[in-house]
Amino acid sequence: MRKPELAPLKLSNPLHLLALGFGSGLSPIMPGTMGTLAAIPLYLLIQGLAAPWYILLLVVGFLVGIPICNAATRAIGRHDHGAIVWDEIIGFGITMFAAPSGVGWIVAGFVLFRFFDIVKPWPISWCDKRVSGGFGIMIDDVIAGVFALVGMQLLAQFW
Fold first, then answer.
1. % of the chain exceeding 90 in pLDDT
2. What is the mean pLDDT of residues 110-115?
3. In 10 A of CB 128, how many CB atoms?
4. CA distance 113 to 153
5. CB-based contact 108:100 (threshold 8 Å)
6. How many domains does the chain have?
7. CA 77, CA 57: separation in Å to the nearest integer?
8. Is residue 93 within 8 Å of 42, Cβ to Cβ?
9. CA 53 to each of CA 18, 29, 44: distance values in angstroms, whole numbers, following the listed order
10. Of 39, 43, 80, 146, which sits 20 to 30 A from 105 (CA to CA)?
């Protein structure tokens, strides 16, 4: 059952559909984790792209994420509601940039990204508390994705 505060969000609205991670953010438990799970098939679609195209898709995803997240926030009147998971999708995409192939690496990226997104070490926590709007929703997950990307590359280098 959908939370009453989410009633204004309509999956028929393309902005809301994306903000909610194709509905994954509506999960009553761990919507951020469900949003990250929803990012895996999208990652599988783009993992073989050349680096410039992969980066371009992430940049476009980030830039369109700002109005996407703003639209969802305006609809429900609450900043960075847990159901808004487009930021997790982009953060996971960042995590997986240049990752080795294989299920184990997807699991490692998932765990690393969720760790940094949940624990929010500085500067992620600073951005989460002080930067508002769609940009604020997006930027803390971008930084978490960068932290997890560094972790992935270190694992790949030394594993």
1. 94
2. 98
3. 18
4. 13
5. no
6. 1
7. 29
8. yes
9. 21, 34, 14
10. 80
Q: Which residues contact 40 (CB under 8 A, 6 or more apart)?
A: 92, 106, 110
**What DSSP character marks residue 99?**
P
CA distance 98 to 60: 18
Which pLDDT score, from 0 to 100, does residue 159 have? 84
Distance between CA 42 and CA 23 in Å, rounded?
A: 14
Degrees, nearest 5: CA angle 135-137-141: 105
- Which residues, in sequence order, are CB contacts of 124 under 8 Å at separation 6+? 116, 117, 140, 143, 144, 147
Q: What is the pLDDT of residue 3?
A: 82
Stretch 76-91: mean pLDDT = 94
| Span of 1-15, 17-31, 48-62 with lowest mean pLDDT | 1-15
Query: In the block, which residue shows the tokens 């599988």?
Result: 44
Instruction: Write out the residue range of the structural domain in which residue 54 sits.
Output: 4-158
pTM higher than 0.90, yes or no? yes
